Amino acid sequence: MTGRYGPTAVVVGASDGLGAAFATELAGRGFNLVLVARRSLLLDELPYGCTRPHGVRVRPLTADVSTVDGVAAVLSSTTADEVGLLVCNAALARSHRSSASRRSSSTPCWT
Ligand SMILES: NC(=O)c1ccc[n+]([C@@H]2O[C@H](COP(=O)([O-])OP(=O)(O)OC[C@H]3O[C@@H](n4cnc5c(N)ncnc54)[C@H](OP(=O)(O)O)[C@@H]3O)[C@@H](O)[C@H]2O)c1
Fold first, then answer.
1. Cα(104)–Cα(99) distance, integer angstroms
2. What is the mean pLDDT of residues 83-107?
3. Which of 10, 19, 71, 97 could make an S-S bridge to 89, C-beta 3.0–4.6 Å?
C-alpha cells in the first residue's frame, strides 16, 4: 500500500476516534505519519502507541483546520514530505437539533 500511497500520510483529526484508528492502521502498514488535531496532549501520546511496534516516523502537528492559519500550518509543515495519502477526518457537519430547526435552519460545527 505504501508503494502506491506512501511514503507519508497526513491524518487530520488524528487525536481521537476514527482518525486515531486510521493513524494506528496506517502505521501498521508502514506509512510515515503527520498527525493533525487541536489537542496536543492527546496527539503527543499517539506516536508512542503506533510507532513503537512498526518503526515508522510520526510527527504530531497541533492545528485548528477550521481556521486559515491552521490550514496554512498544515500545508507549510508538509511541503517537504512526500505525501501520498490525506485522511480528512475533521469535517464541517450540519447539526440538526430538532425537526422544527431542521425545517428552518441547521448549525454548522466541526467534528
Ligand atoms: N463515528 C461515526 O460513526 C461517524 C459516522 C459518520 C461520519 N462520521 C464523521 O467522521 C469524522 C470523525 O468522526 P469521529 O467519530 O472519529 O469524531 P471524533 O472522535 O470527534 O474525532 C474528531 C477528530 O477531529 C479532530 N478535530 C475536530 N475539529 C478539528 C479542527 N477544527 N481542527 C483539527 N482537528 C479537529 C479532533 O481532535 P481535537 O479535538 O484534538 O482537535 C478529533 O481527533 C467526523 O467528521 C464525523 O462527522 C463519523
1. 9
2. 70
3. 19
pTM equals 0.86
Q: What is the pLDDT of residues 96-106, one digit of tens each?
A: 655 555 555 55
Q: Which amino acid is at 65?
A: V
* pLDDT, position 2: 87
Ligand 1 binding pocket mutation candidate from 10, 11, 16, 110 (most atoms within 8 A of CB): 16
Helices and strands, counts by H and E, the chain: 5, 6
* Contacts (Cβ under 8 Å, ≥6 apart) of 56: 27, 30, 31, 32, 33, 50
Contact residues of ligand 1, CB 6 A cut-off: 13-19, 36-39, 42, 64-66, 89-91, 93, 110-111
